[in-house]
Design brief:
This protein is mainly alpha-helical and 683 residues long. It has 24 helices and no strands. It is found in: Cell membrane.
Length: 683
């Protein structure tokens, strides 16, 4: 309840102006339900202009498709109520399936198309007096026009009047995460303090959220929209740093614990940490660090010990870290130059496509099936009861199921929806039964709506209260639509808004509770297994390996999706997350190894058998001790063969990749020990 800031107050005023503009246009055009227009502005109003545009345009496109489908279904099946309800549920289920497979801005199109059909059809069925094709078509088109006016009004007001930009928010958050990552690695190198999984997960979550938020940038009103490709490339480069830091952290802790970290390397780690703390390091200082790292490398032979290959592994990752820090700094300067028109908008390196992000088809199919069942159940309840105002129940079930069931915390979200809908009933009833009858001009209506809409907009601008306030305001605006239907009386209000609406939300909540209780453990286990399947496919892939940056993005995104689901594991959560980070590093090291394949083959080393064994290993869910021993022996043989390479080119990189795979795959195994090699000539 703190005092509103100027930004929050401005957002509240803009919400009010957008709602009143939409209502005025709808009234002037003589649309049958003008109050649907301001309700639409409430749905799409966001604090950032780019998000409003994307959300509004997605609503327009989704509404268009939903309207066409509604007209077809009503005309063809209006006489078959149960069949029509089943087709509505099926439409919602199909739209939900495709929306869950999308992690980009166009996912909202499917969501809107999904609930537009039940909103239009159920509202027409609840109001229809006679079966007439023209009436059905007119009503469906009118719903699209009313909501469309609301979306356009919101886009205009929020984009033209002191807009808050997505671009500046994305860049500020990227700068913040860059600073956090630097502090994270500096603490590891200077203090030799293990920080656990918290900074890893925080960086992974923020970068994943930024990648999705950046999808709004091309539609923003800021200059940053011209640098969208460079901004996404910087996010990719920051993502690559996460597995590097986790690997460095584990290497430093292992060497320190065993007392095998030489004083030279302790001195060098302090120098690297100090260099990372600098805001604008020079290229000369980075080159000096690379030379110091190479100078401290041990001489690698076929007799090199585990401690020596660990030092090579650490040195290789430190060199990559220095280069990555340079690349990120250069990319950040390129973004500034691009905003000033001094650099091309498109970088030479193509950023990783958003289509590479995790897609859970099994979960999408299960959620869609549960949506069909829940909506059909609510529809049958309405049909069997003969309750005229009961059409609101399956409508609310459809809307809120589509909007919230995909989230891991869907039960908590739907509970909050029900709670804030109940909170909105008293002021909604007051506006419907008192205010609406007390106004005789549009100006007086604006004056009476101003306090609730502006105050609601202030709380919508605050992240902590945005969700609940949006539901609260939707409850008020949806109630005012009863005035359009000549149902502005206490009986209709109690029937439609109080009972039917709350029953619909409750049915969605009960269904979510049943579904989530059945789904949570199964989904968690399946997602954990999907990481192993990904590595298995990666090791089995063709001779052309994927880019390292793409693999890192996919692995980090998958990890950020899985991690929130592990809360049910209790004390085993940290071990599970540590194992996931280990598997992520294995996948990245496999790609590094595959990129060196041709060089290794020219030195007589074929990595194909090892890749096949790794693929088979991750393709299985359990392993016998004999299989583990055979796998470990094959990795050690390959490691010793690389240590004995006649050519030093790529030798250290291959040693680092194999050492990382061995350590992450068998963290508790005995240290690598070189065997005595017997050459054919000697035999």
């Amino acid at each position: 309840m703190q005092k509103p800031t100027w930004g929050e107050l401005l957002f509240g005023v803009k919400c009010f102006l957008a709602a009143m503009l939409a209502l005025y246009i709808a009234l002037r055009l003589g649309l049958p339900r003008p109050f649907w227009a301001p309700m639409a502005t409430c749905i799409v109003s966001q604090s950032m202009a780019g998000s409003v545009y994307v959300r509004g345009m997605s609503r327009l496109v989704g509404t268009l498709f939903g309207t066409v489908a509604s007209i077809f279904l009503l005309i063809a099946f209006v006489n078959y109520t149960v069949l029509l309800c089943f087709l509505i549920a099926l439409w919602v289920g199909v739209c939900m399936y495709f929306s869950m497979l999308k992690r980009t801005t166009d996912a909202y199109v499917y969501t809107v198309a999904g609930f537009t059909v039940p909103v239009i059809i159920f509202s027409v069925l609840g109001d229809i007096n006679f079966i007439n094709v023209q009436y059905i078509t007119d009503m469906a088109i009118a719903r699209a026009e009313e909501t469309g006016i609301g979306f356009v009004s919101a886009i205009l007001i929020h984009s033209l009047i002191f807009p808050r930009h997505v671009g500046s928010t994305v860049i500020n958050q990227m700068d913040a995460v860059r600073k956090d990552i630097r502090q994270w690695i500096t603490t590891i190198l200077k203090d030799n303090t293990p920080l656990g999984n918290a900074p890893r997960l925080n960086a992974a979550r923020i970068l994943t959220d930024l990648r999705v938020l950046s999808a709004n940038l091309p539609h923003d009103t800021s200059n940053e929209k011209w640098a969208v490709a460079n901004i996404r490339l910087l996010q990719d480069r920051l993502t690559v740093v996460i597995p590097l830091i986790t690997s460095i952290e584990d290497s430093v802790m292992e060497l320190k614990k065993a007392g095998k970290l030489p004083e030279y390397w302790e001195y060098l780690l302090d120098n690297i940490a100090s260099w990372l703390e600098e805001d604008n390091p020079t290229p000369e200082s980075a080159q000096w660090l690379r030379e110091r790292i190479r100078h401290g490398l041990p001489e690698i032979t076929q007799s090199s010990s585990w401690d020596e290959v660990l030092i090579v592994h650490l040195a290789n990752n430190l060199e990559k870290l220095v280069t990555s820090r340079e690349n990120c700094a250069d990319q950040r300067r390129t973004i500034d130059d691009c905003l000033k028109g001094k650099a091309p908008a498109a970088p030479k390196t193509i950023p990783v496509s958003l289509n590479q992000l995790t897609k859970d088809r099994h979960l999408a199919l299960l959620v869609s099936a549960s949506a069909i069942f829940s909506i059909m159940l609510a529809s049958l309840f309405w049909v069997a009861s003969g309750w005229n105002a009961g059409f609101c129940a399956p409508m609310m079930t459809s809307i809120f199921y589509l909007s919230f069931i995909r989230n891991d915390n869907s039960v908590a979200a739907l509970k909050k929806v029900l709670l804030f809908t109940i909170y909105s009933l008293l002021p909604a009833g007051f506006y419907l039964l008192v205010v609406m009858y007390s106004t005789h001009s549009f100006e007086s209506l604006m004056l009476l709506f101003a306090p609730i809409v502006i105050i609601g907009g202030i709380f919508m601008a605050r992240p902590a209260t945005a969700f609940g306030t949006t539901i609260f305001m939707m409850g008020i605006w949806s109630t005012t639509t009863m005035y359009d239907l000549d149902m502005a009386n206490a009986t209709s209000f109690m029937n439609g808004q109080v009972f039917a609406q709350c029953i619909g939300i409750t049915m969605a909540l009960i269904s979510a509770m049943v579904f989530r209780s059945f789904d949570a453990e199964w989904t968690t286990k399946r997602l954990l297994a999907s990481v192993s399947d990904e590595i298995s496919r990666l090791a089995k892939s063709a001779r052309t390996p994927p880019p390292v940056i793409q693999t890192s993005v996919r692995m980090i995104d998958r990890l950020s999706v899985i991690a929130p689901r592990l809360s049910g594991l209790g004390s085993g959560k940290d071990n599970a997350i540590a194992s996931l980070f280990g598997q992520m590093r294995i996948g990245v090291n496999i790609v590094y190894l595959m990129h060196m394949r041709s060089r290794l083959e020219r030195n007589g080393i074929d990595i194909a058998p090892l890749l096949k064994v790794i693929s088979d290993w991750f393709g299985k869910r359990s392993h016998e001790p004999s299989e583990q021993d055979a796998m470990l022996e094959q990795i050690d043989d390959m490691l010793q063969s690389v240590c004995n390479m006649p050519s030093r080119i790529r030798q250290n990189s291959a040693i680092a990749a194999l050492t990382g795979i061995r350590r992450d795959l068998f963290p508790d195994a005995s240290p690598y020990y070189p065997q005595t090699l017997v050459f054919k000539e000697a035999v």
